[in-house]
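Today's session is about reading a structure prediction critically. Students often jump straight to the picture, but the first step is always the sequence itself: look for stretches that repeat, for charged clusters, for runs of hydrophobic residues. Only then move on to the predicted structure, which in these notes is written as discrete structure tokens rather than atom positions. Here is the chain we will use throughout the hour.
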Amino acid sequence: MEPNILPIYKGHFVDARLKQFHLFKVRELPSIIPFDSPKGKRWLAEIREKGLSTETVPVNSLEGQKRLEEFKKLNVHGS
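Below is the predicted structure for this chain, in token form.
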């Protein structure tokens, strides 16, 4: 089974399973935004309006490689 990668929106990972946006930057407090918060609802609406996906994709796919490059630019834990 190949690994998957989460989508990224406004610098945050979109985790549909946990129903939250999250970001863990080096030397900063984590940013966690629940989908049901005002900001989370607004971001989800923006994602839908733009036709973006909230689903994971395989890392080895074209979309997965694009997300991986975006992930590397974030300076987050694990990159």
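Discussion point for the tutorial: Residues 38-49 form the longest helix (12 residues).
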